[in-house]
Amino acid sequence: MSKKTGRITDPTVLKVIAHPARLRLYEVLVADGPATAAQLARHVPGAPGSLSYHLRRLAAHGFIEEAPDLCEDGRERWWRAIPGGVRWSPEDFADSPGAQEVAATAQRVLIGRHIDRLQEWLADGPQRWGTAWASAAKSTDSVLRLTPDELRELGRELDAVIERWAGRPDGPGRDHVFLFLHAFPIAGSAPASDTGTEPR
């Protein structure tokens, strides 16, 4: 597939994917492959008719597409995810308070989903997936002393590592692994620009 989702700069598009049901539909299609609304209803709460509406909205804004090649009887509509994920930067939405609010809401929805996935893993993941996956799973946090430029450099380095591991083909023992990363300044010392001094 040559199509790929791009960086989102339009608040209308971001608002579409920031809907919890649509985000979940996109996740399932990315992880499990093409499906019909009826099949997706097993994973995403909602009536098939409601899910079909959300699927059409996702398709209209370039997150998924119809897969007519998979339709055997001509009646059911199949959908597939367009790869590339959901990417945007708050700086692209700084022009208006309305756009800023859309970006903030989208961030809350995505972070909420990240936490949900972590809670699902903690609830029964080790028992369901077994010892090999439980011992391989990773959780860590660190507090670093960085400048904004150093944080950007760290981000680029981490992106390169993730890109190196991304896109591996299916194979024996290989499954989807969810990784999420947030890096930001925290309370404890005032920003250097506010104090007029460099961090200690």
From TrEMBL:
CDD domains: HTH_ARSR. It comes from Microbispora hainanensis. It holds the Pfam family HTH_20. Coiled coil: none annotated. It comes from the Bacteria. Residues 12-95 form the HTH arsR-type domain. SMART domains: HTH_ARSR. This is Helix-turn-helix domain-containing protein.
